[in-house]
């Protein structure tokens, strides 16, 4: 009835609220794909801006829609994920819940060094 936002946790009314991310992300690599849950801090790293900033872009209208551009930039981008996996049962069906705990950009030079080390180890063991 009044303008503003009500917080159930604090039992307070505020004029402004802070928008936060709760994302379901489909992640794929050469071995397959999976759905991850990503929350605010990790989602900000993937999208490249805060949820408040993205919300402002969504409300702006115009020919060059920056909201869609921001989302397209985040699509098919490479990241290293640290995840936790838990088994849950729902309606007698077991499911995995994968939650993102950390996100980092891919360091291609470091990844290449790791692959070269693995190759040299495999060569030594096969000889």
UniProtKB/TrEMBL annotation:
Organism superkingdom: Eukaryota
Annotated ranges, domain Replication factor A C-terminal: 3-115
One matching Pfam family: Rep_fac-A_C
Keywords: DNA-binding, Metal-binding, Zinc, Zinc-finger
Gene3D superfamilies from the UniProt entry: Nucleic acid-binding proteins (2.40.50.140)
Transmembrane portions of the chain: none
Family (UniProt): Belongs to the replication factor A protein 1 family.
Protein name: Replication factor A C-terminal domain-containing protein
Naturally occurring in which organism (per UniProt): Brassica cretica
């Amino acid at each position: 009835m009044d303008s503003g936002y009500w917080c159930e946790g604090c039992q307070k009314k505020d004029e402004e609220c802070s928008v936060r991310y709760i994302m379901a992300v489909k992640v794929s690599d050469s071995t397959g794909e999976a759905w991850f849950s990503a929350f605010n801090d990790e989602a900000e790293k993937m999208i490249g801006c805060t949820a408040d900033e993205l919300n402002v872009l969504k409300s702006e209208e115009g020919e060059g829609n920056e909201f869609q551009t921001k989302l397209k930039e985040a699509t098919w981008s490479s990241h290293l994920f640290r995840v936790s996996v838990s088994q849950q049962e729902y309606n007698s069906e077991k499911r995995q819940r994968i939650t993102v705990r950390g996100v980092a950009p891919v360091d291609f030079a470091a990844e290449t060094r790791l692959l070269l080390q693995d190759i040299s180890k495999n060569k030594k063991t096969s000889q």
